[in-house]
């Protein structure tokens, strides 16, 4: 997804980079009860898995925006309920912060983590430099 012009006025354009949306989506998702972590390099490395990306992917075609989010959930939660909450809150957070309407929020459950494993800190959920967007 290329940078998206959100608003044009006499003063100029407001353009939002996709990395900004990734950060908003990642933080919103990570704060939802039942979400253990997003799939990312640091977390995958801790599990002994190879790097599988940040966990948030955005695609824009024909003025439609689709988001794919890859998450690990906490054992015992209702998968459909947590997924629906992620979809709702991500759409609202992005619309509120950027005025961009997301048409699809696709949730991919990568795994379920037991209560015995410590939940990672928010900054550990993202690759280095993720917040530098």
TrEMBL record:
Pfam families reported in the protein's UniProt record: Asp23
Q: What family does the database annotate?
A: Belongs to the asp23 family.
* Name assigned to this protein: Asp23/Gls24 family envelope stress response protein
The source organism is: Lactococcus taiwanensis
Task: List the taxonomic lineage.
Answer: Bacteria, Bacillati, Bacillota, Bacilli, Lactobacillales
């Amino acid at each position: 997804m290329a940078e998206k012009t959100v608003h044009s006025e006499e003063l100029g354009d407001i353009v939002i980079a996709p990395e900004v949306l990734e950060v908003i989506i990642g933080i919103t998702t990570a704060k939802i009860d039942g979400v253990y972590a997003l799939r990312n390099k640091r977390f995958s490395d801790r599990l002994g898995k190879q790097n599988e990306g940040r966990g948030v992917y955005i695609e824009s075609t024909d003025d439609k925006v689709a988001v794919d989010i890859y998450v690990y959930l906490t054992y015992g939660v209702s998968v459909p309920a947590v997924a629906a909450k992620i979809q709702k809150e991500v759409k609202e957070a992005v619309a509120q912060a950027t005025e961009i309407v997301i048409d699809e929020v696709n949730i991919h459950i990568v795994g379920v983590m037991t209560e015995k494993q410590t939940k990672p800190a928010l900054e550990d959920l993202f690759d280095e430099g993720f917040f530098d967007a």
